[in-house]
User: Fold this.
Amino acid sequence: MMLLHKLRQLGRAVKWRRQVAQAVSTQLSLLEDPDALVLGNLSPTDEARLTELVQRAAAHDGPIVEFGTLFGITTRLIAAPARPGQRVITIDNFSWNPFGLPPAVHERFARGVLRTELAEGRVELWVGDSAAYRNGDRGPVPALVFLDADHSYAAVRDEIAWARALGVPIICGHDYGVARFGVTRAVDEAFGKGGVAVGGTVWSWERQA
Ligand SMILES: C[S@@+](CC[C@H](N)C(=O)[O-])C[C@H]1O[C@@H](n2cnc3c(N)ncnc32)[C@H](O)[C@@H]1O
Assistant:
């Protein structure tokens, strides 16, 4: 009986090996170093920098748009100092999370974290791909766009190009200087080397008045 159960579990582990590998990899990293940056969210320095940028976005019309909700932790950080009435739109296709959770469970988790903000209408969760969001007519030009979804060069390049074409006054994102991502190349190419401010790993560009 016990053996049968173990064999079934093994079969499931093989079937879901990609998700299991993701969960185990995250767990091992955190067991070795509880401060390891493997959960996908922001460090305290990054959070402080993003908060400053959100405060400056209060001077501009339009919503704040975050690409990459994950669990909504940073979405809540953005929503707290946002100007009253300034909506936060957060976009995610639920394609990645550090625990290998299925997309539907991942989305439910994020909606749970964001339940107050969603109920109050301060945050809107847009479920889908970044490109699909950008290809639609989304109303007023955002005051600030925060890029933290797909970290490949092409994805970040296209998101920056979209935000610049719209005339977004504050464009920023996460993971600048992190070698395994394409973020730095895309940012340097768009704004020139040294063309953005960097605090922690948050990069930002602001339109001059
Ligand atoms: C690094 S996490 C975001 C972290 C989050 N901003 C935070 O600070 O807590 C990246 C998120 O982007 C989402 N994502 C990845 N590629 C995407 C795409 N092409 N369109 C929309 N979301 C995407 C993943 O599902 C994941 O939840």
Q: What stands out?
A: The beta strands are 64-67, 88-92, 123-127, 144-147, 170-173, 197-199, 202-206. The chain has nine helices and seven strands. Residues 176 and 201 are 5 Å apart (CA to CA).
